[in-house]
Amino acid sequence: MHAPSEASAWLPGTSYVLPIRLSSPADEDLTAYLRWLSQRLEVVVADGSPTPVFERHRDAWSSFTTHLPVKSSRLNGKVAGVIDGLAVASGDLVVIADDDVRYDDETLRRLVARLQTADAVVPQNYFRPLPWHARWDTARSLLNRAFGHDFAGTVAIRRSALPAGEYCGAVLFENLELLRTISAHGGRVEHDRALYVRREPPTAAHFWRQRVRQAYDSFAQPGRFAVELAVLPAALWAARRPAGRRTAGAVGLALVAAAELGRRRQGGAHVFPATAALWAPVWVTERAVCSWAAVGWRVRGGVPYAGKRLTLAAHRERNLGTADCSERACPCHPAMSGAGS
């Protein structure tokens, strides 16, 4: 196991946990990024990759990270990786991030500094480079910013604010579950819309695979999901009215305006391209269709995930403060006899 170098004192008492599972070895870009991180803080990689890939990663990373296999058993493999990573991380302040997240010195310092007054901090991701599907998905972020806040592929937490270092691993929307668990136990959760952290875009194929799965996340936010479900019936009804085209045009312009508002909030215009707001009607149309597909998945038992199905998007916060939802005791786990909460 790798011991942090003296350079890690750049951010003392802070660890970086990367849960990862890849079907083929990571590219040199990720290796260079992990090496760069290791000069600033302790880096823990919880690797659930197949043995040949794990061994390649071990050879490449073990000299400057703590590289360990994922041993925890959770339906959501990312949660298993985070829990195993937290178990060995030495710092109380922990940055958790997906493998496509790329911090720089400024954003890393600012994020950790925010943990002096909060128990969890969520920054704002932006894509770079920007292929067409990244602009499409950026429209989602802009609308989220216009009406509230976005969710990122990274979060910083105070580990002591997470009871027993665990949260439920039988949910799909694992970041929301983590934040709700901390909040339910009295922790302070902050969303920093002005702290911009770069994220590399997925491939177009991965983007398409995530459409319905991301829509399923909205089951965790019933009010939002009700609106998303209402869009398609409303559009079909309006299409049959004489003024349907004018109404559709007006709604489309309103969506672009809302996305532009989200783009400009708290300095977002310097990382979000102006053209991203034009994709807002496209994203809303996609979500309107995929929301009903998500309902179909729910009826069939949940989202297909690693050969199983995840039924629950995330627990309600009020249910997390009074019960142990560490999966074994969680009624949403298939092994339990109770229904999902």
Quick rundown:
With 341 residues, the chain is α/β, with parallel strands linked by helices. 43% of the residues lie in helices and 16% in strands.
What would you say this structure looks like, in words?
This protein has helices spanning 28-38, 51-61, 77-88, 105-114, 132-147, 174-184, 204-209, 211-216, 222-239, 244-264, 280-299, 317-320; strands at 14-20, 42-47, 66-69, 93-97, 101-102, 120-127, 154-158, 189-199, 303-305, 308-310. Helix 9 packs antiparallel against helix 10. The longest helix is centred in the C-terminal third of the chain and has 21 residues, at 244-264. The protein is α/β, with parallel strands linked by helices. Helix 1 links the parallel strand 1 (14-20) and strand 2. It has an eight-stranded mixed β-sheet, with helices on both faces. A two-stranded antiparallel sheet has the order 9-10. The model is unreliable at 1-8 and 334-341 (pLDDT under 50). It folds into two domains: 14-203, Spore Coat Polysaccharide Biosynthesis Protein SpsA, Chain A; 206-306, no CATH class. 42% of the residues are buried.
